[in-house]
Amino acid sequence: MKVLFQRNTNIKLVEIVLLFIISPLVLYASFPILFKVLYLLLGVIYIILISIFIEKFSRVKIDKKQKLDFLKTISFRFLIIALLTTLVLYFQDKDVLFNVMLKKPGLWLKFSGIYILFSVIPQEFIYRTFFVKRYQTLIKSKTLFILINSVLFSFAHIWFQSWIVLLFTFIGSLLFTNTYLQTKSTLLIILEHSLYGVWLYTVGYGALFMFPV
Questions:
Q1: Is 42:22 a contact under the CB 8 Å cutoff?
Q2: What distance in Å separates the CA atoms of residue 52 and residue 75, rounded to the nearest whole number?
Q3: b/e for 48-81, b at 16 or more Cβ within 10 A?
Q4: Cα–Cα dist 158/165, whole Å
Q5: Which of 26, 57, 75, 96 sits 20 to 30 Å CA-CA off 39?
Q6: Which pTM does this prediction carry?
């Protein structure tokens, strides 16, 4: 049974459809909330069981120099994106710039923590750590694998009903997946994802992602 779940391509393809295509559609559709919760809960339980008993994830240690190099890369990319998003929002709607952080610092701090704990960490475990470990062998091309992962990650946000959210999440996934493939460090991608997510909330894009403003 274990070998079947480890190597059977058809099982893995069915998993991708049920976990990464049907799940967002269930969230998007007008199903009863109980059905949505049960479907997603079963999906999470399945991922946890596969991770523990089939894939047997283990901590990967990376070289300190490599970690420092990637921290520099992440910081540089973040500065560029922070500057661009600030400029765009300044010309688009400068009244919302840093609005929540300045006027409601307690809300900003509390929700940023909630966002990292209950959104970033689960997403990065599922869409990077689990997805790469489980499905990378299905696609030989690294570029194609990153593109497929990014499309699925973006599709997971379809229930926001915003092409801007889909674009942001697609670009974010390109960065996060590439970082993870090179480092296999879940901590680094959690850090990178947290930086961008909290920044978008900070600079003024919170309403777009349904953050409290």
A1: no
A2: 33
A3: eebbeebeeeeeeeeeeeeeeebeebbeeebeeb
A4: 8
A5: 57
A6: 0.92
